[in-house]
Write a structure and sequence with these properties.
This protein is of the alpha/beta class. Helix content is 46%, strand content 17%. The model has no long low-confidence stretch (mean pLDDT 93).
Length: 264
């Protein structure tokens, strides 16, 4: 069975075609990730309504989220929110059976250039609080690490979380090695066929630490064309090519890895 551990089905462009997308993807597992109150509730409701959907609940890196809400989110109906209250809500609902993990969480030093120390401290504090929650309930942390890979790994090592998925990881080969040594997982994007970074990760990561994702509707394979969960097939094909296996074998391995992360 195909698995997409990182999608954003709430996105307005996908919601316009959500019913058709769900029908096309009914024979695979999709984890739709939240980043704020509206998307967290959307993810949980959608998971409860569809047997093949799982939710991840989380607060996106705070300064990047504020920037993106200002630029894009308000026209989608998203609002400013109280972080403390949202963390309480996530803690209350994250134990639900249909919640796969805590995500999308992490650090982002790219969107807002020249961040102050207090801004970075705020990001790190919210990230660490969510790591503690993920560890407490023994569910995966689905982690964003844009231009912040080393700090993310350092905080993960300090938190001692065992179930970790590094989403769309862009760190160096040296940092990839640290992730492998910590026995965390990488989710490989559908654009791996043209991403030397993703290919490097596949080459240097054991089978049992690989998962697949699309980040739908982002990271589309063609300009101006939306990405969708079924495109994890392309990741499976490229992983098979690099690891010299049949795609069917890779699909089984990824599904097994996913199910092991689901176990309590």
């Amino acid at each position: 069975m195909l698995v997409d551990v990182h999608a954003h089905l709430d996105h307005l462009l996908l919601k316009n075609d959500l019913n058709n997308l769900l029908q096309r993807s009914k024979d695979m597992i999709i984890v739709t990730n939240g980043i704020n109150p509206e998307t967290n509730r959307f993810a949980l409701d959608l998971a409860k309504e569809n047997k093949n959907i799982r939710a991840a609940l989380g607060i996106y890196p705070s300064t990047a989220l504020k920037h993106e809400l200002k630029e894009f989110g308000y026209e989608l109906g998203y609002k400013d929110f109280n972080t403390k209250e949202e963390l309480k809500w996530i803690g209350k609902n994250a134990k639900e059976e249909k919640v796969f993990g805590i995500g999308e969480i992490g650090l982002d030093y790219f969107v807002v250039k020249n961040e102050t120390k207090s801004q970075k401290d705020e990001q790190q504090d919210i990230f660490v609080q969510q790591l503690k929650l993920a560890k407490k309930i023994n569910k995966p942390a689905i982690v964003h690490s844009r231009s912040a890979e080393e700090d993310v790994i350092q905080l993960l090592e300090e938190a001692k979380n065992k179930k970790v998925i590094l989403h769309c990881f862009c760190g160096s080969k040296k940092l990839v090695k640290r992730v492998v040594e910590n026995k965390w997982h990488f989710s490989i994007t559908a654009n791996v066929q043209r991403s030397s970074q993703m290919q490097m990760i596949v080459q240097n990561t054991p089978f049992n630490q690989l998962l697949t994702e699309t980040d739908s509707p982002y990271l589309g394979l063609e300009k101006d064309k939306l990405n969708e969960p079924l495109n994890v097939k392309l990741a499976i094909q490229e992983i098979a090519k690099i690891k010299q296996l049949q795609p069917e074998e890779v699909e089984k391995i990824v599904f097994k890895n996913f199910m092991e992360l689901c176990s309590v």
